[in-house]
From TrEMBL:
Transmembrane segments: none annotated. This is GNAT family N-acetyltransferase. Pfam families: Acetyltransf_1 (PF00583). Signal peptide: none annotated. It comes from Psychrobacter pocilloporae. It comes from the Bacteria. Residues 11-193 form the N-acetyltransferase domain.
Length: 203
């Protein structure tokens, strides 16, 4: 990959569509299951991260917004896309039993060759801005509630936890054992858990 014409200042996102599924599948499985980059989970989980069918379901879900950072021939937004996806992130709008809405952020990935250059910060900030605007523009009962952003990370990833804590996320005490159902990869530790992080933002 030629990184000379790529920088965090050139990052832009658009909503994913069906034509992106193959490139997204390659990016997510590379970033999560292979050993390249610092964000991978290869030492903790084996198998694939996601399938084309799961991506299609996400793209077609009206409450789930999947955004991609596409590679272009010049690195600029208006240039022709090459078909490769350099980053992605999803925002899933959820409603709890009390009709309170929150945004779950997931499928966050940046191509390993671009990690450590600030690209991920730009992608995450864009997703957070979208989620906050979406939540705060929605009537949420008679009182406006702070926008709640949540995400889950694997236990035994202190460097990843520290990254999100620097971005204002905190552990909220919710955790579940890593699902061992064959649909989420194969855990390599019996004590592996998913830890929930939360960030609250007011208008």
């Amino acid at each position: 990959m030629n990184k000379s014409n790529l920088s965090k200042d050139a990052v832009f996102l658009r909503q994913a569509d069906a034509s992106d599924i193959g490139a997204l599948e390659r990016l997510l499985n590379c970033c999560y299951r292979e050993t390249a980059g610092w964000t991978n989970e290869a030492d903790l989980v084996g198998g694939i991260r996601i399938t084309a069918e799961e991506l299609a379901s996400t793209i077609n879900n009206p409450t789930h917004y999947l955004f991609v950072y596409p590679k272009t021939t010049t690195g600029e937004r208006d240039a022709e896309e090459t078909g490769e996806i350099l980053g992605c992130i999803a925002v899933d709008i959820k409603t709890d039993a009390n009709s309170n809405k929150k945004a779950y952020i997931g499928m966050f990935a940046v191509h390993p060759e671009l990690q450590g250059q600030g690209v991920g910060n730009v992608v995450l900030q864009a997703a957070e801005t979208f989620a906050i605007r979406h939540l705060l523009s929605t009537e949420n009962g008679t009182d406006k509630q702070p926008a709640r952003l949540t995400m889950s990370i694997l236990s035994h990833r202190p460097e990843l936890l520290a990254y999100y804590q620097r971005r204002g996320y905190q552990l909220n005490g919710n955790k579940i054992p890593f699902p061992n159902d064959g649909n989420n990869g194969e855990p390599k530790r019996e004590d592996l858990e998913l830890l929930e992080l939360e960030k609250r933002v007011s208008a």
